[in-house]
Structure of F-box domain-containing protein:
Amino acid sequence: MEQAASDSNDGGLGDNLMFLEMEEAANTSDNDNSLPDLMPPSPIDGSEDPETVPPLPGAMDMVPAELWLHIFLEICTEALAEDATFLQHLDAREVIRLVHPRFASIIDAAPEFWTNFHVSCSTPPDYVERHVATAGNCQLDVIVMFDPDLLYRLNFLSPNDEDEDDVADDRELSDLVADAVACLQMILPTVPNWKRATIWCTTDSFLLAVLNAFARVPAPNLEYLLFACPPAVGSRRKCDSLLINPPNIFNGDLPALRQLRLYSASLPWGDGNYFGRLTYLDIQSLSRLAWPSVEDFIAAISASPVLEVLVLTGGGVKFEPGALLPSFVIQSLTTLKLVYTPDSKWAMWVLAQGSFPSLINLTCIDFDNLAWSYTEELGLLSGIRDLTISGPVNGVDHIPALLRHLPAIVTLDISDVPGFYLASLLADPLQCPTLRGLRLGREDLTALTTYVVLRSVDPRNALEWIEYDHGLLYPLSHFSYTMFATLARRIPFFDSRPEFRV
């Protein structure tokens, strides 16, 4: 007992001594203004100004610049794809630059960030100047879009001003044109580096400024050009007066031009400098004042020996009824897309005089009976393998006659055509003996009409697959999938092909 008590007293005394030593050490540390050894040394030793000492690395600085560069490129690419108006005061690059100083330094030091830029009525000149200085010798994708009416509607108009005849008064428009001219002068040195260009003007003032700026500047590396002069929204100003005589742009020095799109605009028709090396030509909505003559139109579409795709959407040619039309051949053309409008009937008639030995893809949109009659006269349609049809009901009677001219058709993509009409086509195994694939639009097909179409497929047909609504076999929302599956099980077409069984 005594031994135990003695041990207990010794233990308590030892604990008290340890506590006193720790307290004394703490008091000494406080008096010496020193930190425990476990703490990192302070960067400030009293001899340096705290404001001049660099801060410890933060989270932004610890991430490698290469990783930030990859992230920023993805963000800018996605933002560019989603930018439909081309009118933003701050694009993705500018927003990223404002987030953190290091972000700004990374973007400013990477020329690949500046390969895409827009110049519009709202673009600050200092932004254009910095962009030109940073881009260096990189190949550029440039959008020059001057649409003052759209700008005013987006930024300056009140709801009560929407019915005004003139959106911008002359003084404000002149100020915008002056700013545009200043921006155009800044980007002129970069034109030799342009790879893709979109030029969009809706008024005579801006179009004249663009033509004056780019008239004598060569673009040796330009591969894609979209030249658009649509009528301005909410304004009576148009560019027709400047398009009566096709303007010269980039001095006609475009040796690399391969894709040309004209939207309500024109260039010197048949000029080999513009049309002589094209692989893709898209002519849309030509103003009547800009219509080419028959000779110029044929010269334009047949100038290039490597033209593969021709798209004609609206617009026409100056044609005198009774005049003789010359025949022509486009050997390399593989894809022809025609969107019919009342103004394009003469252009369709001119195309009917041509011959296209390599044509394999034909798209016909919004055709009426007259357009179908022209199409049936297109030369050498026997090689067509893929046919796309979308149009009004009053033109479907000509589809069988067209199909008879297509003995090699393999794929038929059809929409906006009544289901009963499709059923009558597929019920005849001799109508399309080589047809292998059928794509059906879902806009006008319910589960019942789809069933009628599929049920009508003759087993003797060579049809191998049917794609309904981008590959999905299901009805509209008010029909259940179970109902459609039940119908599909009763269709001999599915029973004979295991890959289509439900």
User: Anything to note?
Assistant: The CA atoms of residues 247 and 267 lie 6 Å apart. The chain has 18 helices and 15 strands.
